[in-house]
Design goal:
single chain, 99 residues
Length: 99
């Protein structure tokens, strides 16, 4: 989140602000990046994505874009790393006993 905050600060005059009102856009852009990752996996076999350095690099880059927009959404709503960790652990524990 600290890196994403630095990035947002650097481009604050060129990009829309990170706030609840613009979070919808970031969620949509994040979904677009997920789609780009899906395209890579859809067009190639899993073995190719794992073995071909350029494909793997492309997928990792798209996933990094997803993570960047995800962090923007967290920042938009003031969700801290500690808050997210707590929710993640609770969800993990619930899923571990689900079935």
């Amino acid at each position: 989140q600290a890196l994403q905050t630095r990035l947002q600060e650097r481009y604050r005059d060129q990009w829309e602000p990170v706030c609840p009102e613009t979070s919808r856009n970031r969620l949509l852009w994040m979904c677009g990046e997920v789609g780009e990752g899906i395209d890579i996996v859809k067009k190639h076999t899993p073995a190719q994505v794992c073995a071909v350095p350029a494909l793997r690099c492309h997928l990792v880059e798209e996933l990094a874009d997803v993570l960047m927009y995800y962090n923007d959404v967290l920042l938009s709503f003031g969700i801290t790393a500690a808050e997210l960790k707590r929710a993640y652990i609770e969800k993990f524990e619930k899923n571990m006993t689900r079935w």
